[in-house]
Structures are given as structure tokens and as C-alpha cells.
Amino acid sequence: MKELLKQNIRKHIVLSENETEEFCDLFEQKSIQKKGFLLREGEVCKFEGFVTKGLFRVYHIDQNGFEQILYFAVENWWITDIDSFCNETPSQLYIEALEDSEVLVITKINKEFSYANLPKIEKLFRVMTQKTHVALQRRMIDNLSKTAESRYIEFREKYPHIIQRLSNIQIAAYLGITNVFLSNIRKKIALKK
To answer: How many domains does the chain have?
Structure first.
């Protein structure tokens, strides 16, 4: 389980074997069954997680009762409600397993402990936070400037390993469109071939 986490860390920073072990020992493994929740709206998020198996969706339900999916998280991805985690406020998000899933979680106390005792870990989270900001900025620009069809095509090309694991309804909620509109987009693309 922790081998995938170690590989992820190595992509961002260099730690000694002892530092890597000490950091990884701060994580607790959780198993979440399909349709189970890692976090629900109203709860305070007390973890940052690293997905080792399965698939999660992070979403919000708007005032009209529609799901708005912020992102999906699969193996080797990090997952949290960063606002709730950092500010210790009730979450506005749900984190739900779409498959039987496993995640390694670190608490805020253990994360702060790692910052104090393993200074390189602060760099790890800074680098990951920067990458997350870049991805969110690009997603916002795409949502404001691209058509739903082009967003769907890009999503399909960028995440072929994820799209096969999702329903049309979930993809539509991520793209911010209806399932019917997504079906029309797929038909239009199929006719072009």
C-alpha cells in the first residue's frame, strides 16, 4: 500500500529511506466500499488522503439539488477538502467512493508534525499545491472559454484510464452539463467519424 505513496513522493522530492519511512508511518489506511463516503457535507475534513486503490468523486450539491463534480481521484492521486482541512470549518463537499477503494490518510496534527520534524515534507506539499493550483486555473479557464464538446474531448483524451470507469451522468456533472447534452455531444462526435 505505502509503496505507491513512496513512489509519488519520489516524483516530487528526494528523501532518505529513513525520512520516507518516518513520513509514511504517519498515514493510516482506510478502506471505503463503493458508494461509501470519506467525507460528507457539514463534517470537518480531518485528513489529506492519498488514493492507493479505486476511484473517488469530490462534489458539491448546489441550491437546485444538482451535483457539481470538482474532480475525480484515482490511484496515485491526492484527495481532501483543503478549505475544511486547513480552516477546520464544516465541509461543503462530499467525497464518495465510486468503486471499492483504499486511501492512506494523514491528520492535520501528523502533517504539522512532519513539517516540524521532516522539513523537506513542506516542500513536497508546496510543490503539490502549486500543481493543484495550475490544474484548477486551467479548468476554470477551460470552463469559461471552451465549448462543452471541446471540454469533453479534452477530458476523454487526458484521462482515458478514468473515463472508462465513469457513468455518463458523472462525466456530465464534471463538465457542468446535462446527461442529455452529453449524449448529444457523443452522437455528434460519432457522426463526424
So the answer is: 1
DSSP 164: T
Exposure of 57 by Cβ count < 10 A (0-12 exposed, 13-18 middle, 19+ buried)? buried
Asked if 27 and 2 touch (Cβ cutoff 8 Å), the reply is yes
Does residue 37 contact residue 79 with C-beta atoms inside 8 Å? no
* CATH code of 22's domain: 2.60.120.10
> Structural domain of residue 34, as residue ranges?
2-117
Q: DSSP string of 86-109?
A: HHT-B-S-EEEESSSEEEEEE-HH
Residue 95 in any domain: the answer is yes
For 40-70, write each residue's pLDDT tens digit. Answer: 999 999 999 999 999 999 999 999 998 999 9
